[in-house]
Amino acid sequence: MDWVHNSRMDCCVFCGVSLDGFIAREDGRIDWLDEMRERFPPGEDAGFAAFYEHVDAIVMGRGTYESVAAFPEWPFDRRVIVLSRSEIEAVHPQVEVSSEAPKELVERLREEGLSKVYVDGGKVIHSFLQEGLIDQITLTILPIVIGSGRPWTGVLPGDVKRALMDSRTFAFGAVQVRYRVDRF
Is 67 exposed, middle or buried (0-12, 13-18, 19+ CB in 10 A)? Predict the structure, then answer.
């Protein structure tokens, strides 16, 4: 897949989902995702490194941040903006907390000259979709049904039309689709 910087800023989603559309269990655990990663052949990352190479910043919600902050090692080498209305203790110097609405944040980041923002976490993805701010969605659909959990997005006020950019299959049973989102 070709991930290229544009003259404008793109807000992009890249996430793994279960066959039934969940990104985490109801309690936020992603143990099933870790099990699925063990099925990846050595060196396979389902295109994440190529996607991440051009990311200027990551925007996530408090819940996603708390999950990531509990990892044995901090996984990001880029600026991370956590959307939260309450105080959060930053565990890494590249973390900043913002109470801005998504549109305000996107405008500020655009003015700062960012080209690509990785939007992560179900609630944040949902809020960005609600406001028509997501430009690309990449979903890696993993061969597992977890029955219940946290969906990758929620109810939206209308349809979000998508145009397929590309798709690929993996020998370990996953299918990945990448869509350009037509704003509503």
Answer: middle
